[in-house]
Write a structure and sequence with these properties.
Number of strands: 11
Radius of gyration: 13 Å
Shape: globular
Structural class: mainly beta
Number of helices: 0
Helix content: under 10%
Length: 123
Amino acid sequence: QVQLVESGGGLVQAGGSLRLSCAASVRTFSNYNMGWFRQAPGKEREFVAAISWSGGSTYYADSVKGRFTISRDNAQNTAYLWMNSLKPEDTAVYYCAADSGVWLGRYYGMDYWGKGTLVTVSS
């Protein structure tokens, strides 16, 4: 079983930055590919970024490419999402997720989910 807890959300002005963290309670964190998804009010959940178990591969949604960076620290059982040049349309609940399968790059779902952290970007 994998438990994921996100932190780092909050209110930021457009153009600002935030770093989200995802702490995983799991025996072997490096067995899992990690991802970030988001859900804006009234919209479906969407993929944001993913990173392979080793950290050697990453994949981004076009909407965040060049602005967001996903990373992980396997020694600390933590994944991160660095968000720069934030826009009001980035406002959403951001969810951390973990997947034990083969690295896919672009994910539509994962095995385990956190409860989310709210990011609000004001204009």
